[in-house]
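agent> Task received from the user: take the single chain below, predict its 3D structure, and emit structure tokens. No templates, no multimer pairing.
agent> Plan: (1) validate residues, (2) run structure prediction, (3) serialize to tokens, (4) report one or two observations.
agent> Step 1 OK, no nonstandard residues flagged.
tool_call: predict_structure(input=
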Amino acid sequence: MPVISFVSPKGGVGKSTSALLLATELAHKGLGVTVIDGDPEQWINRWAARGNVPATMRVVSQPSEETIIDAIESAAAETPFVIVDLEGTANMVVAYAISRSNLVVIPTQASTMDGQSAAKAIKLVKQQERGFSRRIPFAVLFTRTSAAIKSRLERDLETQMLDSNVPVFQTQLLERSAYRSIFDYACPLEQLPRSVSNLDKAITNARAFAGEVLAMCKLNKADLPSNAAKADEVAA
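)
tool_result: status=success, residues=236
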């Protein structure tokens, strides 16, 4: 079953937010998902502790170097999807998680500093590829971008990555108040009050991201643990 890790050496890029959005979108469709919260801040674990966790989703917190591989393998045996939110340092927990991943998502904002951090994350993925003699798919996810227009720096960073054959998500997670609100209200997007600004657009954006993740994992109807219709629903 797919193991999807969220990696960034820099904090504040929306790593935990994007991991939680993916997890809740999969769970919203009735798909089983385990989130392993390896971020020292424990944002997803705190979110789960306040309730409103989807029935098909569970959260495992604070894996160590000694337990991270066992945690991933145990979760993969129990739920169809495993999402790992990793801390913003290049330590052995991060390295071990990457080595077990079917896809590494590298969230980044459109800044020179974040672009350099994304390059460090890619280097770490490549190191694990060499160390374990296996290809580890990855892609850069631009976060907190403007819904109105791309900045010049954003366009330049994206062009540089594509010119360097760095995979980049077509979907960007836009700057939406709804994404902050899931932590304020401790619930998935679909359960937020309708008064939250641009909620429908945020849901559409998150679902597009989830669909692209599934495509990158090369999932098809036969790969999913339940009926084929669920694949179409998630990717829609």
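agent> Step 4: summary for the user.
The CA atoms of residues 52 and 105 lie 25 Å apart.
agent> Done.
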